[in-house]
Design a protein that fits this description.
The chain is of the alpha/beta class. It is about 25% helix and about 30% strand. α3 crosses α4.
Length: about 270
């Protein structure tokens, strides 16, 4: 697979005697958007750390394309309110960045106007764009985005997801994105991986944003609920562990309401 950027095979991570990741398989290729979803405690952050090389698995293999350039966008950035830090100075913390390169990166994400603003004074949406611009400064082959629309209103979320797709199309970089907002990214996500310590299910998402059941789920303050079509061969108990095989599906995909309150409901 010549366009492969990362490949995880049989990755296991244990912390304090508890399994955090079990037998993880994950591939991301150039030009592909892979969205990682799952409940709190599912191991998403641990998996991202393994992809970034910040954590060594207890077993299994993490392969990265040689000299892979990775741009990372954290879920949020905590800045001391008393620290006098402008957007420009923040971006110049990246080695080799000057005003022109910073302005070009901000222009790519539609945030050029905030270059001289105090970092603490910009809006949530502007902050996420600044963090995305910072990730782009590395000219990445792989973008790793952890909840990229954190703290952004719904209209701004849709704009940010559209921007991420535009950047993918422009640079043909791979994107690994952690998100609870599958309803906003379904039309452009190539692969969905549902994680609950192990890969619970994965596949190509269906565009079901206008499905009444889908709208109902997301309208009940449950942003971690998602509907998509996939193959599923097991069920979970309340703690997310595999407890029994699912009913035979005759190898046909089915619509699945995935309640990320730690259970799988089969319809």
């Amino acid at each position: 697979m010549s366009d492969a950027l990362i490949r995880l095979k049989d990755v296991n991570v244990t912390r304090a005697g508890q399994s955090v990741l079990e037998n993880i398989q994950l591939n991301v290729t150039s030009g592909e958007i892979v969205t990682l979803i799952g409940p709190n405690g599912a191991g998403k952050t641990t998996l991202v750390r393994a992809v970034l090389g910040l954590l060594r698995p207890d077993s299994g293999d993490v392969w990265r394309k040689p000299k892979l350039r990775v741009g990372y966008m954290p879920q949020k950035l905590q800045v001391d309110p008393t620290l006098p830090l402008s957007v420009l100075r923040f971006l110049r913390l990246v080695p080799g960045v000057n005003r022109n390169t910073a302005l070009a990166a901000l222009g790519e994400v539609g945030a050029g106007k905030v270059i001289d603003s105090p970092l603490q004074g910009i809006s949530g949406g502007e902050m996420q764009r600044v963090l995305l611009a910072r990730a782009l400064l590395r000219k990445p082959e792989l973008l790793v985005l952890d909840e990229p629309v954190q703290g952004v209103d719904v209209a701004g979320q849709a704009e940010l997801y559209a921007l991420i797709t535009q950047l993918r199309n422009r640079y043909q970089c791979g994107v690994l994105m952690v998100s609870h907002d599958l309803h906003l990214v379904m039309s452009t996500t190539d692969q969905v991986v549902c994680l609950n310590r192990h890969v619970c299910c994965s596949g190509h998402p269906e565009q079901v944003g206008n499905d009444p059941a889908f709208v109902e789920l997301f309208g009940r303050n449950a942003p971690s609920l998602a509907i998509y079509h996939h193959h599923h061969d097991h069920a979970h108990d309340l703690h997310g562990a595999v407890c029994q095989p699912a009913a035979p599906a005759h190898d046909q995909p089915h619509t699945h309401n995935h309640d990320h309150g730690d259970s799988c409901k089969h319809g």
